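Table S2 (text version). Query chain:
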Amino acid sequence: RAAAASGDAGSVGCPSRSSAALAIPDYINACDVVTLPYRRGPVIDMASSCKIAEYLYCRRPVVATRTPNLLENFAEQATQLGSAICAPGDPVDMARAISRQLQDPVI
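Corresponding structure-token output:
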């Protein structure tokens, strides 16, 4: 109110989102496959990633590691992804899942 009363209403309100943040869907949609290569650990196992939701919202083929974050917070989507889920810390399994998503995408 004080800013509005003083005539400085331009500085009142929420800051706008940066152009980089607004471009995130464009970056995601430019990918043939998106990955979520999480490790297992006591901290990350309790986390909830918004990146998973962003990828699913953009309807891009996803490859993700089998972690509690994915399995508990996105159980239905994890089941649908099937063989696009790979073992944490296993780059060979990640490569297999990426190849699978490139050949026959599950979205």
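Notes on Table S2: The longest strand covers residues 62-65. Strands lie at 34-36, 62-65, 85-86.
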